[in-house]
Amino acid sequence: MNSQHDEVNWMTIGLDVADVQSVKSLIAKTIESFFKIKVTVANAGVTIRKPFLELTEADYDKVMDVNAKCVFFCSQEAARHMVKQKQGSIVHISSTTSVIAEPNTVEHGASKVR
């Protein structure tokens, strides 16, 4: 979905943020639609509310893929275009769980360390 209203342009795209190719496609579609990218906000985040000793490798991988891997590759791909444009901003959203322990969110806190 795309919109133009009072000089503000936006679009929404559904994607699997844990999939690097989907993230690259998102940035490509943004450039295709708007010819540049001014701001990237990495705000995706998931948690699996389980006690620390019950978390599995699959649980850990799911959280890290969304919360860390996605942020890294989305920022990297956006930065490639921002460097060419000689402008742009990247904002990463962290979490209070990266500095304050909360029950059953240890993997989330680890993925959001700043």
Short description:
It comes from Alteribacillus bidgolensis. With 114 residues, the protein is of the alpha+beta class.
Task: Give a written overview of the molecule.
By secondary structure, the chain is an alpha+beta fold. The chain has a single domain (14-111), classed as Rossmann fold, CATH 3.40.50. It contains three helices and four strands. The protein has helices at 20-34, 57-85, 106-111; strands at 2-5, 8-11, 39-42, 89-92. It has a two-stranded antiparallel ribbon with strand order 1-2. Strands 3-4 form a two-stranded parallel sheet. 18% of the residues are buried. GO terms for molecular function: oxidoreductase activity. This is 3-oxoacyl-[acyl-carrier protein] reductase. Belongs to the short-chain dehydrogenases/reductases (SDR) family.
Computed CA radius of gyration, to the nearest angstrom: 16 Å
The computed structural class is alpha+beta
Task: Count every helix, treating DSSP H or I runs of 4 or more residues as helices.
Answer: 3
Number of domains: 1
Unreliable parts: none
Portion in beta strands: 5-15%
What is the name of the CATH topology?
Answer: Rossmann fold
- Distance linking N and C termini: 33 Å
Named CATH architecture: 3-Layer(aba) Sandwich
What is the strand tally? 4
Kindly report the name of the CATH homologous superfamily.
NAD(P)-binding Rossmann-like Domain
Mean pLDDT: 85
Write the layout of secondary structure elements.
Layout: E1 2-5, E2 8-11, H1 20-34, E3 39-42, H2 57-85, E4 89-92, H3 106-111
Parallel strand pairs: 3-4
Antiparallel strand pairs: 1-2
Helix pairs in contact: 1-2
GO molecular function, one term: oxidoreductase activity
Keywords: Oxidoreductase
InterPro entries: NAD(P)-bd_dom_sf, SDR_fam
